[in-house]
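<goal> How does this chain fold?
<body> The protein record starts here
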Amino acid sequence: MSHEPASFLELLARGAATEAYDRPVLLARASGAGPEALAELEEAKQLALRVRAELEGRRRREAELSALFETAHDLAGLRDLDAVLRAIVQRARSLLGTEVAYLSLNDPVAGDTYMRVTEGSVSARFQQVRLGMGEGLGGLVAQTARPYVTDDYFGDARFQHTRTIDTAVRDEGLVAILGVPLSLGAQVIGVLFAADRRARVFEREQVALLCSFAAHAAVAIDTANLLGETRSALAELERANGIIREHSAVIERASEVHDRLSELVLHGGGVHDVAHAVSEVLGGTVAFTEERAGAAPGADGHAVREGDDWVAAVSAGGETLGALVLHGRPELDPVDQRTLERAALVTSLLLLARRSAGEAEQRVRGELLDDLLDAPDRDRLLLRERAARLRTDSEAPHVVLAARVDRAGGPAVPDAGGRESADRQRLWSAATHLAATRRGLASARDGGTVLLLPLGPGESAADLARQTAHGLGSTLREPVTVGASAPVRAPLDRPDQVAVAYAEARRCLDALRLLHRSGQGAAAEDLGFLGLLLADSRDIDGFVDRTVGQVVAYDRRRGTDLVRTLDAYFASGMSPARTKDALHVHVNTVAQRLERVGRLLGPDWQSPSRALEIQLALRLHALAD
């Protein structure tokens, strides 16, 4: 039995599921192993499971750190308040892997809170709802400045339900909701939400993560507002050159700190790197200490003075992890205080990321369609289990569709990049909804959206492409072009074919746009001989049958010579006179045969494009014979 413990190393190497670690023990017991051997195997199993848990934790923390680095980078480069709010909501949805995320801001004049930005929402009623203080889950968060979470909104009696709010939530289809306050000190300026349309339990680390991100987001909002106020002040004080220079120096210093902290995060800097950078900027010595964890002053986010030192708490989700202590600068102006506070927030993100990296990786890499496209060698049983949890129709033939918004041509607009980004986001939202209703999958990719949808009874790939283009176009009120692949049978059994089918769908999409057929949907079979070149299947018999099949069938049934007449007609430069010489028949016979061809193929069979396809089909038919 000495070889059995080595099998646990093999399981670790290939990342096997937890239940697979019971197999070596069961096999040994079945083969009659003694108690000592079984005890040895059990001990090896427990050790392997601990190693596996540690590896998963490391992966989770690494991915979480990566996602939080991206968050810090996005917020660091933003100056416009609307752009800040959009980035906050998009990142919150990405970090927690929820279907919907949204942000509300308090209205001190009206005494309520209103919806400002939504991500993944499809209900106009929900996007315009206002909540009174204490009403609904969001109103309760805004009033109490505490995070609240519910896994069943309509069955939760902890907060006040109103007809208006419940109607909006029901219209959006939300079930599980997590809300955390956006706080500046003791003041709540809004609420950040993450929600799903199905029952879901938000773990404590997820709540802490969103709380920490909300704290960072609140400072980013405050920074955007502060920069706006500073610009206004500079405009008003334009005549006072001395004051202008002072304000400019302050802003430049704040921007330098912001950029340096962002660069540190992007290049994988650690806590001590942040402390060193802030020391250089503030002209003192900054050190991080864990000795103040759980009892650090300034836990409300503000730096406080202790003797000749300044202390900024490093906290996440209400938990104090330590503090940044600045020595050698007894006097700090407000901007330098904010610099120290921002450094504490970045430090909290770095510390929290180490805990949550693995969960973020699972969320980021957990998209089934992305795995089918990018990692087709994944375990097929696991793919099927994930598909079953998503309630996809994995047994039916599927079609891969590539979709893209194609706006009508017009003069360039200054915000073209922002509009394209908004178009992609709206397309992604609409495609996600369509995939959910059709028991398929959708993912954002290559500037557009890719869908994997099952074929219905009697439905073709071309039918599905046209329906998808029409449905997405109607939802977005913009032309959406859709290219489709040939059907893929049992994609979860042959995941490598999904990427091949996606490449074919992209070629069809590009062909439609080159043919000025934006806003339409088509498969290779709709594109004639061009489709024959684009398709991976190279269905030559199908192309010949679709193009001249009626003429061939007519000759077989009637014993006529229409195919040979067509060959001679095209070989003679489409001249009936030369055709009759080549066939040794009367010119009237040629005319009668061509008239019959027109009735079989349609009145436009001699148009340049149709004639080209017919000639190609005739050549392929002759080669087949």
